[in-house]
# Entry
Amino acid sequence: MSDEAGAPENPVGRCELRSPPPAWVSVIVLVVGDVVVLSAMLALGIIFRQWLGRWLPIEISGTMMLGLFLATLCLPLGYAAAQLYPGYGQSPVERLRARVMVTLSGFGAMILFDHLAQDGQWSRGVLLGVVLLSVVIIPLWDRVAVDVMVRRHLWGEGVLVAGSPGRRRRLVAILNAQPELGWVPAREAEIEDAPTSREKAIAVAFVVLPPNILGTDLNVEDFPFRQVILVPEVEGVQGHWVRALALGSSLGLQIQRNLLVRRNRLLKRAFDVVVAALLLTLTVPAMALAAAAVRAVSVGPVLFVQERIGFRGKAFRMWKLRTMRADAEDTLAQVIEADPQVNAHWQHSMKIAWDPRVVPVVGRFLRRFSIDELPQFWNVLRGEMSLVGPRPLPDYHLRRLSPLAIHLRQQVLPGITGLWQISGRSETGLEEQERLDVYYVRNWSLWLDIHILSRTLSAVLGGRGAE
# Structure
C-alpha cells in the first residue's frame, strides 16, 4: 500500500478526527438499562408462573421474590467482569457472545445454588422463564443501546493514531467506519511524537507499524497510554478468533480456522436445519399470499428457479418467488445500452437503482421485504444452502469476482443472507461485497451467524437497502 500523502483513502470510512464523548455516560446507560431489563424479565417470569398456577399450583412468597430479585441483580457483576461496561474495542459479535455466555452462566449458578443450598426454594418455572427471556432480550437491548449511543455521539473513548500520514489516515477511516467498536479517532501524530501526545481524554494509542519495523527506534514502553495497539501493515487476514502467543522473545499469532473443524460444520448444519424448518413452517401462509399476488398481476410461473454455483463449485437450483417480468433479460440489455449512468451503476454493483425488470408494486414489495427469498428455506433443508453465507450469484456476477474470492466462497454453503445484506445490500459495490464475503469465510463462528441473522431481521423489517 502506498504511503504517499496523496494515497487514496479507505472507501468505507471518513478520515476525520472527532471529540470523544463523556466517558461516564455509556457506563451509566448500560448498567441502569441492564438493571431495568433484568427486573422486567423477572417480573414477566413471575407473572407467567402465576398464570400457570391454575394448573400447577405453587405459592410465590414475598421472600422468594426478593431472593430471586437480588440474585438476578448480581448478573451485572458478571457483565462487568466480562468488561462489558462499557466494552470499548469489542466487536458486536464478541459482545453478543459475552452477553449470552454470562447470562447463561449466571442463571445456571443461581439454579445450582438453589438446588444445593436451598433445597429448591425458588420456583424453577420462574427461573426457566427468566432465562429464556433474558438470553434473547439482554443481547438485543445491548445492541440497541450501543446503536442509539453511537447515533447520539455518546459512545466511545478518544484514541490517538500514530504513524506516517498515509497509513494513519487509512486507520482513522477504518475506525470511523466501525463506530460500534467505541474507538473515536481524536488525534493523529507521527510515531516519534506519540509519547508526548498524552491528553486526559485519550486513553488508547494505535500505532501503525512501518513495513520495516526493525529499522525504527519504536519503544512501546515510552507510550503513556492505558492501552497501546500495534497495527501491522498486513491486509486480508483473519481478524476474529486470533490469539497472541509468547514465543520467547518473539510474538506469534494463533489463527483458529473454525470452518476446518468438523464439529463446527456439523453445528452450523444442525442450526440451519432446526431454524429453517421452523421458519419454513411459519412462513408458508405468507408465501401462499405472495404467490397469489404474483399470479394476479403478472403472466408467467410463480416460482423463479435459476442455477447457481454452491459448495465446492457444485451447481444447484435456487428457488425464489418471481418478482421480474417475463422479458427481464431483454429489458436489462436495453436499459443498460440506452443510459450511460445506469450502465455505470450496473458495472459498480450489478444492480439498478430502480430496476425496470421488476413487476410494479407487488414485485417491489416482495423484494423490499425479502419475501421473494422465503422459498430458499427449502434449499437450506436440502443441504444446498445455509441460512448465512456468501450470496449465491448468477454467472455474469460471479465472473466479476477475483479468483481468491471465488475460491473462498466455494469453501462454504452459500447463504440466504450474509454480511453483504446487513452492510447495505444493493447499496454496496462489487469490491465491498467481495471484501465482506472473504471476511465472513475467514472469521466464521456460530456467534457471527446469529449476529448476522438478527441484523438481517432488522434490515428486512425496515426495508433498508433492498432493490
Summary: The longest strand covers residues 183-189. Residues 1-11 have pLDDT under 50 and may be disordered. The chain has 16 helices and ten strands.
